[in-house]
Amino acid sequence: MMQLSTICSQPSNSKPTQTTLVWSGRRRLLLVLFSGLVAGTFCKPAFAQEIAIALKGGKLLTITHGVIENGVIVMQGGKITAVGPASSSSVPSGAQEIDASGMTIYPGLIDSETNLGLTEISQEQSTNDLIELSDEIMPHMHTADAFHAESALIPVARLNGITNAIIAPSSEDTLPGQDSFIQLDGKSANEMLLVRDNAMALNFTGEERRNKGAFDKRKYPSTRMGLAAQLRQAFIDAQDYKSKRDAYDRKNDTAQDQAQARNKNGKAATDDKQSDAAPPKRDLKLEALIPYLEGKKTIVLAAQSPSDLQTAVSLANEFKLKFVLNHISHSQSVLDYVATLKVPVIVGPIYEAPKEGERYDTVYSLPAQLQKRGVKILFASYSAHNVRNLPDEAGYATAFGLPYDEALKAVTLNPAEVWGVADQLGSLDVGKSANIVMANGDPLDIRTDVKQVYIQGRAVPMTSRQTELRDQYSK
């Protein structure tokens, strides 16, 4: 039996959770990869605070149950333990009480696509792990393997109220690898990587075409037809791989059952060639696609133009993939069609200029146009250096028709629901993780200054490389 074990980070006073990757003679390879790899497995960082902290007198934007003008929120053990009006909420004895009068308190914001921890200095290649260009089909790549927890860009984003994010490869490949859901504080990558391999991009924007030179012998598609054919073949190969693996399991199980029956009846055990048969040779590329073919994980389907969008959706439907849409900024003419798909859409950055022939507000009004059609929207920065602008994107969209409450949900509760962590994040509710932001105004107003960020109830340092430089040179 082959066995590979990993430990999920836990508070120091609790026992570690161990999960195992097993191929046994009796059962198939169990794809219970690392702790936190299965979407929805939420690892609790080790630094969650234990002493109760109470923020008193602030304006609470709960997201799920309205606004509490003069409220109290209590956090302990990394969780929210009380939320309510100051007049009817009690504070535990011995709690650290903080006067939040005049402050606005809201859940930590969630960026639905970033490159945090995968790049540091854009022009310095040694600091970039954004994409693997040796092949276009790379579903077995894991952003978690390259995530750099010490990135100086993470505190910069955190200071504007972003506490969680999706990290994804850049989009030059059609299947560039698997995303992870992170928390923007921790002593190590293990503490910050909350859900590994929770989603995977399928990019069909045309950007993925390789323009081969005369001496480039690598065989990559140079047309959209080629991209679609290559993707289709990859999923067909994965289906075939799964079928052969399942057939091996069934034969092996039958042989094992027959051997047990003979032993039970007192008959001599005989060698069974089926039970000793070698399993199919492992193919990490095809194996990585199986959870997506089974609908257990989410494909992030990226397309810009209407024709690309419809081709990509047709491909996803052919293989019954569970998906959300991405990068559809220039598909205004088919938004009614998008609404019929009944899937969430990731929008942003909305500062992008319109293309020739489009209205000046084509990109700016997209969030509102989608929301009017009943589409659940999420905002993303698609960046590492500009994650801090996430709340400003949502605020900017309100100027072009997106209702304020929906804009706030698009950076809190909506992404928490889509990424399978709504039981832990996205709103100020008892029992959820105490990822909380305290600011001196509206979170979607660019003039607002974030005063304190709490992650798992711990007040994180409100400093970054930028504030250090500011303080150093302002003297």
Report on this model:
- The protein is of the alpha/beta class.
- It has one domain: TIM Barrel, CATH 3.20.20.140.
- The protein is built from 13 helices and 18 strands.
- Strands 3, 4, 5, 6, 7, 16, 17 and 18 form an 8-stranded mixed beta sheet that branches. Strands 8-9-10-11-12-13-14-15 form an 8-stranded mixed beta sheet.
- A hairpin with a 5-residue loop joins strand 3 and strand 4 (67-76).
- Helix 4 packs across helix 6 (284-293) and helix 4 packs parallel to helix 7 (306-318).
- It is globular.
- 43% of the residues are buried.
- Residues 1-40 have low confidence and may be disordered.
Figure out the total of helices: 13
In CATH, what is the homologous superfamily? Answer: Metal-dependent hydrolases
Q: What is the alpha-carbon Rg in Å?
A: 25 Å
CATH-derived architecture: Alpha-Beta Barrel
Percent range for helical residues?
A: 25-40%
Judged by helices, strands and strand pairing, the structural class is alpha/beta
What number of domains? Answer: 1
What is the CATH fold-level name? TIM Barrel
Q: Which stretches are poorly predicted, pLDDT < 50 over at least 5 residues?
A: 1-40
What gap, in angstroms, lies between the N and C termini?
64 Å
Q: Taking all residues together, what is the mean pLDDT?
A: 87
